[in-house]
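stuck on this chain:
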Amino acid sequence: MPHRAAYELRLASGGEAEFIDVSGEMAFEWADSCDGWSVTQRTRMNFEYRTGVSLELGWSLTSWESKDGSQYRFQLKQYENGAVSEELRGDATLNGDAGGDEGGMAHYIKPEVQDVELPAGTIFPTTHSFAIVVAAQQGMERLWAQLFDGTTDNGLYEVGAVILPRAEDLELSEALDPELVEGHEGWRVDLAFYEFGSPDSIPTHEQTIWLFDNGIVDRMTLDYGDFTVDGKLIRFEVLPEPVC
């Protein structure tokens, strides 16, 4: 379901030695652009340090993925106190089917021009999201994927997903109309992101999302290693179907 959502972010645990508080907001938009899926994510977090210093960090990712999962465009900007601190931009193409054995190539134009070979089995983010839903519907409890999203200098992750049924007594966010998820299956999905090809068994970051089969996420937990942040849905809007 194409939609626009906003999540309030609050410190859940960790960081006691450094932070007094962490707060912020994440905005997410997933839209049907006729020939592909357009995704926009913007995150802002304010860190209140015990030293009295405040720091605002943020990032935005704008991407487009063809509906057959073979092409991808991306632009990532990272911010520090409102100023752009880093930018990555480029595109990627798979030579065959998404997740197939032919691999492909990513071409970066920022921060510098470079090509990154995409190994066999690579998929892009929206294809990965669909794969999680399909796996959950088939009763699979685990899914392993090789993902390219363009958010690092080579953009490649190995991602492990653990899929669990949504707890029946888990309440919906007040911001979500219950009719939008009535009759839809839901799951808790734990995601661990590992640097591609690294022998390190510790993920770079982890996420837990509470996902419905129409793509709606009504809550999340973001684990950055030293601290975790809870995300609560505070605004939700269904986007209109495009005129193609």
